[in-house]
Hints:
The complex is a heterotetramer of chains A (about 500), B (about 950), C (about 140) and D (about 60).
Chain A: E1 3-7, H1 10-14, H2 17-26, E2 30-34, E3 46-48, E4 51-53, H3 61-65, E5 72-75, H4 80-83, H5 101-106, H6 111-119, H7 121-131, H8 143-152, E6 159-164, H9 173-180, H10 182-196, E7 200-205, H11 210-227, E8 231-236, H12 246-253, E9 277-281, H13 282-292, H14 296-302, E10 304-305, E11 308-309, E12 311-318, E13 324-329, H15 334-341, E14 351-356, E15 363-364, H16 375-380, E16 389-394, H17 399-413, H18 419-422, H19 424-436, H20 461-478, H21 482-486, H22 488-497
Chain C: H1 3-13, H2 21-32, H3 37-47, H4 51-60, E1 73-77, H5 80-84, H6 87-98, E2 103-107, E3 119-121, E4 124-126, H7 131-140
Parallel strand pairs in C: 1-2
Antiparallel strand pairs in C: 1-3, 3-4
Chain D: H1 3-17, H2 22-36, H3 39-47, H4 55-63
Helix pairs in contact in D: 1-2, 2-4
Amino acid sequence: MTVVRISDDALALACGADAVAAAFVGAGCTVERVSSWGMHWLEPLVELDGKGFGPAVPGDVAAILNGTSAKAIGIIADHPFIARQQRLTFARAGKTRPLDLADYAATGGWAGLYRARSIGAPAIIAEMSQSGLRGRGGAGFPAGIKWQTVASAPGDRKFIVCNADEGDSGTFADRMLMEGDPFQLIEGMAIAAHAVGAGQGYIYVRSEYPHAIAKLNAAITLAAEIIAPFTIEVRVGAGAYVCGEETSLLNSIEGKRGEVRAKPPLPAHQGLFGQPTVINNVLTLAAVPHILSEGGAVLYDSHGFGRSKGTKPIQLAGNIRHGGVFETPFGITLHDLIYDIGGGTASGRPVKAVQVGGPLGAYIHPDRFDLPFDYEAYAGADALIGHGGVVVFDDTADMGKLARFAMEFCAVESCGKCTPCRIGSTRGVELIDRIRGGATAGGAVESLPQMHNAAKTPRSREADIELLEDLCETMKFGSLCALGGFTPYPVLSALRHWPEDFG
Amino acid sequence: MAYEPQADFGTPQVASETRVTLTIDGRSVTVPQGTSLMRAAALTGGSIPKLCASDNLAAFGSCRLCLVEVDGMRGTPASCTTPAAEGMTVHTQTPRLQKLRRGVMELYISDHPLDCLTCSANNDCELQDQAAAVGLRDVRFGYAGENHLGLAADTSNPYFDFDPSKCIACSRCVRACDEVQGTFALTMDGRGFASKISAGQAGDDFLSSECVSCGACVQACPTATLQEKAVKEIGKPERSVITTCAYCGVGCTFRAEMRGEQLVRMVPWKDGKANHGHSCVKGRFAWGYAQHKDRITAPMIRESIDQPWREVSWDEALGFAASRLQSIKAQYGARALGGITSSRCTNEETFLVQKLVRAGFGTNNVDTCARVCHSPTGYGLKTTFGTSAGTQDFDSVEHSDVILVIGANPTDAHPVFASRMKRRLRKGAKLIVIDPRRIDLVRSAHIAAEYHLPLQPGTNVAVLTAMAHVIVTEGLADEAFIRERCDWDEYQDWARFVSDERHSPEVLEAVSRVPAADLRAAARLFATGGNGAIYYGLGVTEHSQGSSTVMAIANLAMATGNVGRPGVGVNPLRGQNNVQGACDMGSFPHELSGYRHISDTATRALFEADWGVTLDPEPGLRIPNMLDAAVDGSFRAIYIQGEDILQSDPNTHHVAAGLKAMDCVIVHDLFLNETANYAHVFLPGSTFLEKTGTFTNAERRIQMVRKVMEPANGMEDWQVTQALANAMGLGWNYTHPSQIMDEVARLTPSFAGVSHARLDEAGSLQWPVNEAHPDGSPIMHEAGFANGKGKFVVTDYVPTDEKTGPRFPLLLTTGRILSHYNVGAQTRRTANTAWHPEDLLEMHPTDAENRGLKSGDWTRLASRTGETTLRLLVTDRVAPGVVYTTFHHPATQANVVTTEFSDWATNCPEYKVTAVQVMASNGPTDWQEDYEALSARSRRIAPEIPAEAAE
Amino acid sequence: MNRSARLVEIVAAHAGREGPLLPLLHEVQAEFGCVDGEAEAQLAHALNLSRAEVHGVVSFYHDFTATADPRPCVQLCRAEACQARGVEALVPAAQAAAGGRVKLHDVYCLGLCSVGPNARVGDQLYARLDQGSLVELIERA
Amino acid sequence: MDVAHLTLMANQIARNFAVQGDERAAAATAEHITLFWDPRMKAAIRAGGGADLSPIAAAALSRLD
Lengths: 503, 951, 141, 65
């Protein structure tokens, strides 16, 4: 019996994997549905005896089976896109069936949890600190310190919350991990629970990820006995980007409006339901089993660049030929990512800009493609790594329009609590329109004689650009959370590098 | 006091022993740990711009005007949410901050009307102040952008308007409703730029929402978005006077904000120790009765009650009254005269009325409306604890772990205290409710009673005895406390009594209908759940066993060691603003001020020496006995200050007969009330806004009432009483109420340290105030009980004689609702009628179904005493077999059906238990029609003398 | 079974949860196509919240709607990665195809950012859309 | 004064003290009436003949002098 492996990852499904799988079944094959290797341009990717074929359509079945397919890519594991990676978090990608406990155990699953239980809470936290793992959600806060804070905070109950509200455009690593290797996340949460003394965990997943939700629910049921007495519940978001901000996420789980909370108090002291709470991103928690396996912490620490330790699953997206997830130690340059690994744009046109770090990340000009992937280096360049999404734009992109979109996105997704974000984003959209449409005079109201203090002369483009810069400063330093606070990054970077796109 | 808003420190005070010292703009300041930078800055006299912060609300951090720079910290943290830390160096005014703040303000004003000069909040607007503070000169965005300027105003609330176009989305109103009031009636609707405040759901306006119109949102609003209609009509106040509310026994203090002689608004005073800056719909808004056209401002007399009234001069009215009183006294003796003091009037006025009766009339026939509400409290607590008053201050509830509410409906009758209690409950205290009706506290947003024991009306003693049974038999009593603080022998007698199997919850379930398991669980919780506090109201006292129930409560508190420290105690929730004070002032026929029996020779001698008279050593008549004696012919004249006994006392027919039998009824009141239908002399009274004196609230807190405006009738009530006394030749010469308080202090040990001057200085004092307690006594019985040892009293459950039967199968119990007060004389003359235009009869769906009745139907409510009609509300708030109504409207005359049964010890009427039948009706009863005709007839004022100008 | 009774069942099914409002709202939205005022009030009562609070939550999240829309819904991703892959050029044709029959709903990111433009219909995802396949998708919806 | 009503009142007081035993209850009832009743009430009930008085109430009244 011929065994064919095809991913059941949402992206593979969106690209038609089910039809391909059905065709192989029709041809008498046994089809194993596995996780995705993360080479998205090849999905649906068919694996037969370690060799890959893709992107496959049902009509390719006969050729693949008889060895004549032009879509053959050779041994998948040897493909340069895979071979160049240092996969820790995504070590199982493409190789295991996501909901198969035997597959998971056979690939080192639960070793970290069992070891964690044997070494005890203080040692777990010590190893976490030693590994240098920083939060993968964007802020890059050292996970060991956070856990230590929760462990020593007084509280009747403690919680582990996994932030799986992956809303940034250009990111999908969380989704792939949840769909492809859910036990790894569950194991990471169970270790965290053991470390801080938590009894209950929540995974907050955005409602845009129905497949991840289904996989997680199934995996939690399967793993319930292994992680007991710790329990995990999936909570589904409801269409609010801002709930990726940790405090609004907590409010959302509590059944409240997803408004951002002021900090302090930190969630580590007063988090979910007012109790000490570890809140970490999917990839942070998924890195934990590896770190807690024998020698894992030292190994993890040995990877990376400066204070950015370990590996980072970078997501290559947008107008790129070879899109997908690329896990690598920190330090790689954008140039290498986009050209060597990504193969340039999908359209074949020149790269104009790259947005790193989601909708709140700066647009990076090709002049700066030498920037190494590293928290501090990006911060120094007024940019951010965020969740590691890299979205490539070709030369047809209108950077003025994208700057406007950044403000518009902020306006659509603002929780409305703080003034700079609530009003500023809407004014930002209007102002960019005004600048791009050619500066206009003050409105009818302003020209009334009663409006004595208002400017009577038409506002110049320069004045409006200055106002946009002032607005960005107000939002950046005045906003309560990163939504309003970081929206100026894409806006100002676009304005700085592509002023000609602003009319 | 000039008009200036009270200082706002931005964030609440923090109670911490640890102090930190930091530097703000070069000034060193030391504050409790956890204090916000904003508050710390305010304490140095600085002022950081702010809009969303207020010191009665938790820091929120949304407006972003209060950003500061802190050495060594990244960015510009909000000062409201950043706690002060040792050694911090903070800068609140830097060019960078100024630019940021101006940027924020520029955004605000880009979405705000520009009509400051015609705005009702002009010069009283925090947005305006902050725009000025940050130096905003131009809004560079222009005014053509998206905005909220076209949103329609919601004018549904009778007292305030909501204009969303002026809203800055600071959420202060929402937070005030949540945190301060605890109703959660408001929310932010939508999100982002579209965020807007919503009262309730999409289809709601303020009136239809869950809003209880406490006004906390209006007070919290920094703009004109939520604004009193009165401010819109009149303008900004120019001066303010701190005074005390004349509604319930909570005793809220307010700033009466005035424009000339016109009251503009009542703003709760943040320094008020009873209310801490909060209010309810009555105190805050329902003051319009003071200027109502029904106010009578000229004295009137008539020879007999079938004649129309004649307006006369004060001299003529007082002379007429005095001569009638004197001739009756001459003919029938002093004991034919009597008086009723008002629990609505000041301590000083009350003291004068009882002095007039005792020293002037020469009799102890003086009583007060406490007779019909809290007289059992006086008897019961005096017997057990030695003092006729509650043991705690309101702040005590912050320290309670288990709160037992029995026979009280605080959210309706004592709303400001209820908000405090709810806040404590939201923070984790457990609640037990013993009430026949599912009051709001049993279950309302974020509040849920651990146990609700829905007892059969009239079985309080049975339930409390069963609780005591559980506590004693399960070994949960606090023996150490009892041995140290109480009489051990009496405890053992009591413990033996309650331990008897016939007092077990299982046996008594047949009587009380309270499931035994619930009762046991509730008893265990109360005994073992930490600090246990008991709050009770008229559902305890207004029964045949009222005094027994009060003593049973006291027994329970002592048995569980819950007396003498914060968080515990026995807390009567007093109905009227000064019912505590009226009792303190010697309004009862058997005792002089300070609860000293009239038969005590030494006490009498003290008064006799001071007053220069001889006092009758025998107790006088209580109100119901006065009416009995009137029918009997031995009681013939009465002076009633500020009470409407016809409407408020039970068995209206009997009250009417008593009044009708008298030769001289003098009513001293604001309005021609129902009792005045039977009066011969009407002396116009003054409102609390028009007088100076003191009220004493339910926590024994004596607070100043200050004259806000001149009395409409030309005299404060104490002056009228003095004038009547002088018309009788008594030669009194008080020139200021403070002299009356000095006399009280001189004659009353528990008031020895009280004077107006001390009250002005201290804000308020809780009696006893004397050498042992120079600053008053927030908590009583801390070291020992007033009479040495706490006394356990065996309280047998003696069922009432009022029984249901085939003809009267239902039990009627009565109560209050939030928007009205007592007989409604005031609140019915305000827009509060928007919430409760009539009294309704509540009935369980099963009982309604059996009678074929539905909500809105006219029903006939009949008892053995009488009958009335009112409309029905079908609800499962009441248990099957129980019906409930309020008594706020004279048209309903709920007391036509109540009986003459009363508390065995004090004759406090049994309002809470009446056997009734309810059936369909098609209109008012004969009595209601006759009464309406009588009312109209008795209120005629002679045509030859012009009545007060209409409108 | 009437709506009110069904709501009671839904509430009961989530009885063990702490902070159950969002899961409840999802289920109500799925079952009735909306969370209207009546449902808000009933949930408020069941959870011991105020009506205002529940309304505040419902109105905050884009997944919940006050009225039901019986039309089929096609969610089209308009976020940056799909913009980079040309989604904006497809919008006019998509709108024309949707007309009044299909609800064309903007969504910001479906997590398929390397294979856009992407759309979602129910729980089905579609990637690598061009004008033809998007229009066909809308017409089939 | 209405003697029937006064009798009812006296009996009610007596009934509530009854739990203390006849002797103590009579004393307590007497004391209560002394402390809280107006002279004409006391006079009227004593003049009323005590037909419907409970034994404790009757014993109490006999102590009043």
